[in-house]
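The material for today's practical consists of a large collection of protein records. There is nothing in a record beyond a sequence line and a structure line. Backbone structure tokens are a discrete shorthand for how the chain folds in space. Nothing more is needed to start thinking about how sequence determines fold. As an example, a complete record with its sequence and its structure tokens follows.
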Amino acid sequence: MKYTIDVAYKSLFKHGEELCGDKVAVARAQGSTICVLADGLGSGVKANILATLTSQIIVTMLREGATMQEAVETIAGTLPVCSVRKVAYSTFSVLQITDEGEAYLVEFDNPFCLYVREGQLVQLPCEYREFAGKGVYESRFRVQPGDSLTLVSDGVVYAGVGQTLNFGWTWESVADWLVRTVTPSMSALRLASLLSQAVYDLYMGQCGDDSTVLCVRVQPRRAVSLLASPPKDP
């Protein structure tokens, strides 16, 4: 049985910025769908450039058949480390799902993937590994129709901090919201729109950080017959 991987994302810019410091890249390759969410350090133009480089390097290399280790090593050799904070200039999450339902997830310093199945939060088994000195969490698992996987940047889990909420929304609260909100028939676009609006409301319309949600819904593949012809009246 083959699946359809429905993907959608929404980004909110940090208040006062013209560019988003998060970047999403989605590609099809070798019977699979590859999704990358990169979060550049800080905000504005520099963060946008760094996140764009990170997401495009990863998605391009994986699409051309490179391994995740090779992609991370390329990023480590391309992007420098911040001399002040001593941290990487961009964090990222990578999700690759084959049409047969085999999933591969790699996360580097981003909030963990929020995985909902049949109204329950799924705890993914993960393994800590180091690629080019970068500590990443790697997971391999199988998906099934109706599953919902959501990747978010840290602006989502900190939504409302110091405003509507003392300590932000938190990962656990986002997970609870998803469990209550996701329905079997909900599209990825609808889910991304609802979650992004919730984040916007918590920030009271003035986001303290770039906030991106990337939603993936797994659905059974359906055949469609389409007949098209020139219009009767040109």
User: Anything to note?
Assistant: The longest helix spans residues 44-63.
